[in-house]
Fold these 4 entries.
Entry 1:
Amino acid sequence: MFVELNNISKSFGNVEVLKNLNLSIEKGLITGIIGPSGGGKSTLLKLIGKINEPDSGLVKIPEETKIGLMFQEGALFDSLTVLDNISFPLTNGKVPVSILKNKTKDKVCEKSVDYLKKVGLEDAWSKYPAQLSGGMRRRLSLARSLISNPQLTLLDDPTAGLDPIASSVIMDLIRSVHEEMFMTTIVASHDLRRLFPICDVIIALFDGQIIFKGTIEDLKKSKLENLINFVNPRYNLAA
C-alpha cells in the first residue's frame, strides 16, 4: 500500500471528526472519498498531506514523497497573476517570477506555461484570480497542485460550486493528467456523480469512520443505496 492510516482519531474542540479510522490507499490509482459536507473528508486529506497531525494513530507514507494539494477554497494568491500563482511551487517562495535570475526564470516560465496549456489557461497568464471564472480558478488550482510532479495528489472537492459543464471539465482534466503522470490521486467530494467517471476505488466516509471501500460496481452491489442517497439526495445509485 502507498498510504496507510492506522487507528487515526482527530477532534476539533468537543467534536470528534475521525474516530479510530483505518485506511489503505493503493499506489497509482484514483481513489474517491465520498461523504456528507462537514463529515471529515477535508480533515482526512490534511492528515494525509501532513498539514495537520492526528490526535492519535499513525499516517504512513513513503519518505521523500512529493505531495500536491488542491484545497477546497482554491488558496490562490489574489495579488499575483495566473503565471505567478502557478509558478509559486517552483520558485521557493520567490515571487513574482520577474525577480528570479534569468536562467531560472526561463525554466520556471516554460514549465508554468506548459501546465497552463494543460488546463487551457495559457491565454490568461497575465490575469489575476478575481478576473477568472470559478471554473478557471479551479483549473488553475489543479495545475498548481500538479506542477511539482507529485507522486501523491490530494484534491479537496475540486468541483464544489461549479455547474455541471465546468465540473465535467475539471474531472476530465484530473483523469487525463493522471493517465499522463500516473501519480496516486485522492479526490474528496460530497457528490458521487462527479467521482463515478474517473475513480478506480470509492471510499465512503460517514460519521468519522470508513463504512465502504471498493470499486464502483462493488458499491452498486452493496446495500448502501440509502446512505448514498442521504449523502446526496439528487443522485440515484440504482440508475
Entry 2:
Amino acid sequence: MSVDVLSVAEEVEKQSVFVEELNQEMGKVIAGQKYMVDRMIIGLLANSHVLLEGVPGLAKTLACKTLATTIQAKYSRIQFTPDLLPADLIGTLIFNQKEQTFDPKLGPIFANIILADEINRAPAKVQSALLEAMQERQVTIGDRTYKLEDPFMVLATQNPLEQEGTYPLPEAQVDRFLFKLRIGYPLRDDEMKVLETMTSVRTPGGAMEDLPVPQPVVTPESIREARAVIDRIYMDDKIKTYILDLVGATRNPSGYRVQFRTHNGRALEQVIAVGASPRASIALVIASKAHAFLRHRGHVTPDDVKAIAADVLRHRIMTTYEAEAEEITPDHIVRQLLDQVEVP
C-alpha cells in the first residue's frame, strides 16, 4: 500500500503543476477572493457544480468568466429572470419548412462552463430543466436526448434571499451543488488593488483597457487527466469514518455526544430539522481529495475535510424555526460539529 501511495504522490506532484499557473492567471484579474477561486477550481476538478452567494459587485461573474478563459473552455453566461423559459436554456425544435422536419436548435447550456447568473430569480420549470443537466449531464429536447460537454460545470450566482425578487431554490437542486460559497467583501488592501485597476471611465464597467488579460494555461483534456489522478488519491479508512461521523452527527447529534453550545443551552436536535444526505458524504470525500490535489499531496488529511466541510454541509442542513428565530445558521452548526466530533 505504501508503494502505491508514493506513486500516487509523485503523479499528483506532476499533474498539479498547473494549479499555481491557474491561480496566477486568475490573480491578474481577480484581486483577493482566494477562497472563492480555490473552491471554483476544486469544483472543476471534482466534476461538480458550485453555488456562489453574495451581494452584487464581488467579482463572482468576472471570476467565472476568467476561469473559463484560463482552461480554454467554451463559456456561456445565462441571465436568469422571472420570464426565462426552459427553451431559452436548453434549446428547442425549429420547423424546417424546406425539409418538412423539426430540427433542434441547441441552447446556451451546451458549453463547458455555464454561468447561471442570479439563479434564484428564475421560475420552477427552468430550475427543473437545469436540474437534469446538472445531474445527468444531458438534456431532453422533444423526444431526443443530447449529451452535454465534458467537462461540464455550472457556476451559479445567487443573491441573498432577503433581496427583492429572489426565491429559494428547490432542495433537490441545491443538493446537486458540491459547494455553497458565502462570498464576503474583499480585504482593504485587495479593494485598494481594485480601485487601482477598475476605476477608468474609458470602458464599460470601469475596467481599464490595459488590464492584464489572463492566458489559457490548461486544456479540458488536462482537467480530465487530473480527475483520474484525484480518484487515486489515498484516503485512509479513519478519514472515511470521520466523514461519516460528521454527516451522521447532523442527523443524530445525541448519538455522537454533540451538544450545541448557545447561551440558552439549546440541544442540537432542536436546531436541526433535516440532516445532511448521503450525497454530503460523497461530496466530502471527493472535495477532500481535490483539496489535497491543490496542496500537491497524494493523501487526504483531516485538515482537508475540515477546510471544505462548511462549504459542503451548509446547504444540506435545514434548520428549525427556533434556530431561525435565534439566528442560528448552518455555519454555526458545522463549527460545533468540527469542534466536538472526534478527529482521527
Entry 3:
Amino acid sequence: MPLTARAARDAVDGTRCNMGRGCGDLNGDGLNDVLTPTAWYEQLPGRKWRKHPLDIGFSDGGRVLGHASNMIVYDVNDDGLADILVSSAHRYGIFWWEQLSERAPNGELRFRKHVIDDTWTQAHYLGWADINGDDTPELITGKRFRAHNGGDPDEDGPLGVYYYEFTPGPNPVFTKHAITYNEGIGAGMNIVPVDIDGDGDVDLVTTGKWGGPVIFENMTRSPYHACLRFD
C-alpha cells in the first residue's frame, strides 16, 4: 500500500513580512536556515529558531528596491562563507551579497553588496541550476510583464529570459546570455529548471501574463550543437 504523505507544521515566526524567502546554511553550522528580506532565522538543534537581523537592501520597507525575489544561499566567491543572491522583483537590480569574515560588534553577520546587473527591471524570480554542464549553477531569470499593471519602471520594455554564467572565486564575473530577447517571451512568477525530455540536460519552463507556458529545450547534448543552445 502506498504511504500517505504527512507534514508537520513548524512555525518559525508568526509576524508579517514582505515578499521574498530563501533557505540554506547561512552560518555554516550544517543546518539549513530560513531567510526573509529583513531577517534570517538560525536553525538550532531540535528544530528551534533564533531570529537575526538581515540587511540585503530591503530593510527600508521597500522604498528603494521594492519587493525582494527569492533568495539563494551559495558561496559565490569560494571563501568558505555562504553568500546571498537576490534581485529586486519589480525594479532594477540583481545582486550578490558577500558575507564578510568580520562580524558586526554585536556578533551578527555582515554582508557587502555586489551588482550583477541593473540594466533591466522586474527580475521577479531567480532560478538556480547547472544548465551548461560545468558543475556550477547558473543564475536564470527573466523580465516579468506588467506585474503591477503600470506601476513598475520600464514595464513595457523588451521581454527576455537570460542566464548568467559565472565561476566561483575571489573575483567572480557574471556573464549574461540571452535565451530569448524581444520575442514576446518573458518570465512570470518563476522559471522551472527541469530535464523535461529526459535527455540528461536541464531545460526551462516558464509562463506569464504575456502567455505560455513555454518550454526552452536545452540542445547542449544534441550532436548538432557544440555549445549551449535553447530551442
Entry 4:
Amino acid sequence: MKSKKINLLFNDPLAVAGIIILTIFIIIAIFAPQIAPYDPNEIIRVDGKIQRLQRPSGEFIFGTTYMGRDIFSQVVIGSRIALRVGLLAAIFVAIIGTAVGLVSGYYGGWIDTIAMRFVDILYGIPFIPFVIILVSLLKPSIWNIILAVSILTWRTVARIVRSQVLSIIQRPYIKAARVAGASDFRIMVFHILPNILPLIFVEMSFIVGWAIISEASVSFVGFGDPRVVSWGKILHTAFNNGAVRVAPWWVAPPGFAIVLLVISVFLISRGIEQAINPRLRDGR
C-alpha cells in the first residue's frame, strides 16, 4: 500500500517538479559555503573602490548591494535559514498539534473542551504583532521566529487530528483493542496514530511553506535575526535603500527564491494529498 502511494506521488508531474525544485534548494543549502563566491557580508572592493549597485554580470551573477555585497552569495547562504525555519517549525508544530489533537479527541469531555477553547483563543492572536511582542521580550533570533510559528500554528493541526480521532475511535478494531485490555496510551500510539500520519505529513508540508513566508515577513519588517543572512533580511535592506526603483536586481532574486521554494512545497503537499485521498484522484 505504501509503495503504491509513493508510485502515485511520483506519477504526478507537478509533484515531481516540486520534489526536484526542493531537492535543488536542499543541495544549495548543504553546499552553500562552497557555492557562494563571496562572504555574504563582505564589502567587495576592486582597486580600492567599493562595488556599489553593480548590475548582474559574469562576476556578480545577481549584482551587488548598496554596500558592495554580492547578492548571489547572500541568496545562496539565505537558503539555509529558509529551510531550517521551515523544517524545524513543521516538526515542532506537528508534534505539538498531534499530541493535543490526539489526547483531546480520544478522551473528550472536559479535556476536549479546555483544549479546543485554548485553540480558539490562539486563532484570535495575529501573527506579526505576536512576533513583535515576543522579540521585544526576548531578542531577535531565528529560534524565536520558529518558536512564534510553533506556538500559533499547531492549532490547525490539533483541530484536524482531533476530527480524525473522533471518527477513528468509533471503529470496531478500537473497541476490540479496549476489550482486549490495551491501555489508552497503546491504543493512541499503535492503533490511532498510524492512521492519521499521512494527514499529518500533508499538514507538515503546508506548514513548511507558511513558516518560510513567516520568517521572510518578520525579517522584512526588521524583527529578524541581525546576525544571519536570510531572504527576508535581504528584502528588508533593499527596501530601506530604495532598491525597488533603482536596483530591481537586488529585490528580484530573494523574492523569486521565496516564491519558488514555497511553490515547490505546495506542489509536493498537493501530490501527497492526492496520493492518500482517492476522491481527489478521481476528481470527485
